[in-house]
Structure formats: C-alpha cells, structure tokens
Amino acid sequence: MAGERAVGLVRELHRAAGGHLPPFRAEGLRQALEEMRALYERNQADVSEAKSGRTDLIFLIRFRHCCLLRNQRCILAYLYDRLLRIRALRWEYGSVLPNTIQFHMAAEEVEWFNRYKKSLATYMRSVGGEEGLDLTQDVKPPKSLYIEVRCLRDYGEFEIDDGTTILLKKNSQHFLPRWKCEQLIRQGVLEHILS
Predict the structure, then answer these.
(1) Which of 1, 65, 79, 167 is buried most deeply by CB count within 10 Å?
(2) CB contact set of 176 (below 8 Å; sequence gap of 6+)
(3) What is the dihedral of CA 25, 31, 36, 39, to 10 degrees?
(4) pTM score
(5) How confident is the model over 29-85, as pLDDT tens digits?
C-alpha cells in the first residue's frame, strides 16, 4: 500500500521509548522518497490526460496527491522528531556524545548537533557576565548546594573549586557541590545518593 515505508519510519521512532535514538534509516528514507517520486510522475502523466478530457482520472490523481502529502508529513515528522531527540541529548550528555549514540546518527545529524552545540555555547558565553552562564547545570532546581554521591565507575582525579582534588574510584562516596558533579551524574559516572 502507498505510504507504508514512510509510516514505518514513524512507527520505529514511536517504538523507541524514553527518547532513545534508534539508528538512522537512510535506506527506508530513500525508498519513501523514491515512492513519492514515482507517485508524482504518475500523477503528472495522468494530469495531462485529464486535461485532454479523461475526467475519470481525477479521483486517482487526488488519491495519489493525498498519498504524497501523507508521505511528506511522515518523513518530516521522522526527521523533526530525530532532531528533537538529538537536541535533548545535548542537554543530557553535554557537548560530547558517546560513540554508541553517534553511531546511530547520520552525518547531517552530527553536523546539526555540532552547530547546535556551538550556538548554545555562544549564547551561554554572551549571558552571565565574564564567565558566562552554564545553562546545562541545575536542570532541576537544587534543594541543597552539596549532595552525597557514589562513584559508579573509575573516573580518576576530580578537582573542585577550592582546589581540592578528589579521586573518584568505583563505589567510593563523596559529599560534593551539586553544580560541580551534575554533569557527571548525567553521564553515569556518579549516582546521587538519596537519604
């Protein structure tokens, strides 16, 4: 049936729960665009025949046109949803994405992510005085300035503002400034211990 390839792309995104980014389906996208091109060419041929007096083709032309519009909406929804998920990944993981996530992205999506990352960094430098304002910190309003965290994997040395260096080893617990370790919590290096 017409439009199944494009709908399949949207269904796959819908199945990917929790903002997970499934692999980019270039072949599925190419097939949907090829189907659209074939529908358009058949419509063009039928339109010229309909102009010469064959009015029985009008309903077929309208049907194909609706299929074209549906495919277009599905493809745009697929691409837009992927961009929204990639934008959310910037806020979740920071400016460097894990290789497992980058592997699922098309080259154009990686380029878009890099431009978005630079644009966000430029904006954060422009607000908040000389040092700028890091909007990626404190995504949720903090209840306290210091939190207790547990290290989930060996990370190495970690320096806080007063110059103290802390060795983050697996299963070690520390009492650290929230804003300093929130990025590591999002990356899965630290875990917030709730009392």
Answers:
(1) 79
(2) 146, 147, 149, 160, 166
(3) -160
(4) 0.71
(5) 999 999 999 999 999 999 888 888 888 888 998 999 999 999 999 999 999 999 999
Burial class (CB in 10 A: 0-12, 13-18, 19+), 182: buried
| Per-residue buried b or exposed e for 3-25, using 16+ beta carbons within 10 Å of the residue's own CB | bebbbebeeebeebeeeebeebb
128-179 tens-digit pLDDT: 777 777 777 766 676 778 889 999 999 888 888 778 888 999 999 998 888 7
Edge-to-edge order in the sheet of strand 173-177: 173-177, 146-151, 190-192
- Quick one: 62 exposed, middle or buried, by C-beta within 10 A (0-12, 13-18, 19+)? exposed
Q: Which runs of E-coded beta strand occur in 98-155?
A: 146-151
Q: Which two tokens stand for residue 72?
A: 């277009």
Residue 131 gets the label, from left (phi > 0), alpha (psi -120 to 50) or beta, of: alpha
Residue 105 CB partners (closer than 8 Å, separation 6+): 21, 24, 86, 113
Cβ atoms 149, 173 nearer than 8 A: yes
Name 191's bridge partners: 150
